[in-house]
Amino acid sequence: MGAGRNHPAGVALLPLPVSSPHGAGGRRALPWLPAFLAITVLAIPAAIPTTAAAQTEAPGQTLKRVEQDIQADKALQRQLERHSQTLQKEMDELRDRLVGLADQERAQEGELAHLEDTLTALEAQERSQSERLEGERQQIAALLAALQRVARIPPEAALARPDGPVDTLRSALLLRDTVPALRARADALAQALTRLAETRESLEAQRSRTYAARLTLIDRQKDIARLVARREELSRQTEEERQQVAQRTARLTGQAADLRQLMDRIEAERRAAAAAAAKREAERLEAERREAERREAERKLAEQRAAEQKLAEQKLAEQRLAEQRLAEQRAAERRTRTETEAARAAPPPPAGERLPVGGRVTVRYGEADRYGATSRGVTIQARAGSTVVSPQAGTIVFAGPFRGYGQILIVEHSHGYHSLIAGFGRIDTAVGKRVATGEPIGLMPTDGSPDLYFELRRHGQPINPQRGFGAPEGKGQG
């Protein structure tokens, strides 16, 4: 605003530069931002005079200045409304990206679990082959040592030994039969060593793929955290700008009201001075008006009599048309009532089923939980730090700690459904927020193998969450 008015809000209302995620980590500038900044600067009205300056200025001029400021603020508010709509569109695109990233994270978690299972199997296979080859090596080493001892005995010494010729012959035959067997076992050992080397190569490749999958999963989780923070920043920025413009407009409106009261008093005095002269002129005009009204009344009476006949004919035609429309309306109401009763009797269509987090279901609906009680929902063992998503579109009605359940979230859906989700490490939404199907709403704890409890209710009664939102109504268990 001008130098004579202490109003820094005009500067604070300039919108901050906004950018949105694009691709894997890039950011794109909003193309409309420079034009909006120029419009915002031009929309800042002229300064309202200070008290000392206002004393030398007529009230009408001051009022005109204030009204110009109000009009300028209204134009600025319209610009902010358009800005808010653009931000809302960006937030909708951001929500869609969050849903997609959550699905990608869940797929990455499944792939990582498969790679880890394969890695465990390869490690077990490598240990088994190594133990079997070690046993073969020890047996062959013992046989080779025995053969070396026999081979070192010369033929003359063998004849002079106390053993008989039959024993010597048996030793020679045993030696002849053992050599081919040892050769075959040595070949088999070489092949086994080759397979062991191949297994170790597969094991190293599998470890590399597992490490790459873990890095990809970490990147997905970082992207989701960045987008959730961006969503909250856009929402907060839009609300602050609206509040600033509303406060400034209200203050200017109050100043305009005070100036109008002053102008009204001045105008009242001027009207009182002219009232006496105007009264005589008004009396003359009143006499002329009455005469003109008398002549006009006579003319209208003649026209009315002619119109009454025509009106009677029109009423008769309208009465017949109204009776026909009434009959049609009653038939339509009967059809509508029949369709409404049929729609109420039919169950709502299934809306798909989606668990809030990926993982292994450890306790199903109706089974005994770890305390021996019958479970009213399902318990899912998830990966540490996994993203938790909304199973269905709805509104957050509770978010925070509750007794011994830790951090819990309750989402209200259509057709009387409610989702109760417990076991969060962190909640990324708040009461009153609308969430889409699959939109991230929080994270699992970052240590161990955390459990998430998911309970689905309809009209206050628990139902099986794994049967989806189209499951028939029932009392539930427990």
From TrEMBL:
UniProt entry keywords in alphabetical sequence: Coiled coil, Hydrolase, Metal-binding, Metalloprotease, Protease, Zinc
Residues in M23ase beta-sheet core domain copies: 375-465
Coiled coil: 63-150
SUPFAM superfamilies given in the database record: Duplicated hybrid motif
Cofactor section: Zn(2+)
Gene3D superfamilies documented for this protein: Glucose Permease (Domain IIA) (2.70.70.10)
A Pfam family that the UniProt record links to this protein: Peptidase_M23
Compositionally biased spans, kind Basic and acidic residues: 232-243, 326-342
InterPro entries to which the protein is assigned, alphabetical: Cell_wall_metabolism_enzyme, Dup_hybrid_motif, M23ase_b-sheet_dom
Positions of transmembrane segments: none
Disordered, as annotated region: 232-252, 326-357
Protein's name according to its UniProt entry: Peptidoglycan DD-metalloendopeptidase family protein
Annotated organism of origin: Azospirillum isscasi
